[in-house]
Amino acid sequence: VRPGCALLSLLSSLLLLLLLRLLWCPTDAPARSRLLVDESEEDPQGTSPALRILRSPAPPIPPTTNSTYLDEKSLQLTEKCKNLQSDLNSLFNRTKRQKEDDYLQIITDIQNCPWKRQAEEYENFRAKLTSCCDAIQNFVVSQNNTPIGTNMSYEVESKRTIPIGENIFHMLPASQPFVEYPYKQCAVVGNGGILNNSLCGAEIDKFDFVFRCNIPPTNGNVSKDVGSKTNLVTINPSIIMLKYQNLKKKAEFLQDIATYGDAFLLLPAFSYRANTGPSLKVYHTLRESKARQKVLFFHPKYLKQLGLFWRTKGVDAYRLSTGLMIASVAVEMCENVKLYGFWPFSKTVENTPVSHHYYDNQLPKLGFHKMPKEYSHFLHLHMKGIIKLQFGKCET
Ligand SMILES: *[C@@H]1O[C@H](CO)[C@@H](O)[C@H](O)[C@H]1NC(C)=O
Ligand SMILES: *[C@@H]1O[C@H](CO)[C@@H](O)[C@H](O)[C@H]1NC(C)=O
Ligand SMILES: *[C@@H]1O[C@H](CO)[C@@H](O)[C@H](O)[C@H]1NC(C)=O
Ligand SMILES: *[C@@H]1O[C@H](CO)[C@@H](O)[C@H](O)[C@H]1NC(C)=O
Ligand SMILES: *[C@@H]1O[C@H](CO)[C@@H](O)[C@H](O)[C@H]1NC(C)=O
Q1: Is the CB of 151 under 6 A from ligand 3?
Q2: Which domains does the chain have, with CATH numbers?
Q3: How far is Cα of residue 370 from the mean position of the Cα atoms in its chain?
Q4: Is the pTM of this model over 0.85?
Q5: CA quadruple 374, 277, 248, 227: dihedral positive or negative?
Q6: Ligand showing the shortest atom-to-Cα distance for residue 352
């Protein structure tokens, strides 16, 4: 082989690559070149249009200009984004197990569609939640909704009751304690590993009310990603039993929760009988040590009704995840809700592995919550303009 010939073929392959790149990766080019490619492309496999949309990433959002041509194009984009809704529905309705990759493909497409708050949709959804569950009155146990002498039924072990005597009654707030309700801007921060290196901290700290789940770390090197503001944080009694050894590690517990300032600590004290002891113990421990945080208990009836509400929407998990409970509360308590750190997948849309939490990679009990199924409801609410999901890194 002559060296000149090899060089020539190398050069021509490079040229071809360059041409292909220009055609397929118009990163800086106007959106229309991509759309033209999409339109002129014949479908060799004869797949249905819906499937094609599912497989091809949605085009980037065209810049706003007044050209009629681009107006037409953004109309087509809107069509594409509308179709995503039915793509999600059909994935969601499939009886066989949904694949993680199917979800990630849809999420990639959703990310490329513009998000717009839909005030009317928000109000409709809020009204439905209020008529089923009424978080404002019923979300936490209060003296107002639980008079002395009540036999309170447990959420899950519902044949069991606990009498509310003086001792428990005096632990309760007089009425619902969220005095500044409704809050304008609320963030619900999940603990997903997707938050690691997200740099979302500054954005999260700007919200009027920040909800968090299961006393996660917020100080030190994670605060740049998850923020440090907390107004309400849930505590799973199992963390009291396991991590803090039923508060034998009291000093460690008090030190850890000190980072939440005067936030509300919310416990599902009346979901299982086994939850009651550790939850009341948290209350007493905080009182004795004159801690600033206030303890609240999830109302078992509220959680039960919320579970039934989501069941009618197809969430047939044994019990809702804390994230779905709190997001539902937030929709009733707030005017805008944004979710961070909700990511039940093992990798990003770019295929890099994601740890289970932003602070560890401990996996949950299998089959307890139906996370991806719940997640499709979050995607649905996002697409309807009701709540906004932050999928990846924040703009800084
Ligand atoms: C489009 O036109 C309207 C009215 O003609 C004008 O107010 C607006 O600034 C224009 N937008 C852009 C992006 O040029
Ligand atoms: C999926 O199911 C819902 C009701 O559960 C129905 O309204 C919707 O049309 C179904 N979507 C598809 C694509 O079958
Ligand atoms: C609660 O249960 C106790 C004992 O089972 C019963 O005596 C009491 O009347 C009940 N109270 C109410 C309000 O139902
Ligand atoms: C953050 O700090 C924790 C504990 O100090 C450490 O285990 C972890 O590796 C650190 N993470 C990063 C990204 O620096
Ligand atoms: C977060 O990212 C850092 C790299 O920036 C890595 O060292 C750390 O292990 C990650 N944490 C988790 C829990 O995956």
Answers
A1: yes
A2: 117-390 (3.90.1480.20)
A3: 14
A4: no
A5: positive
A6: 5
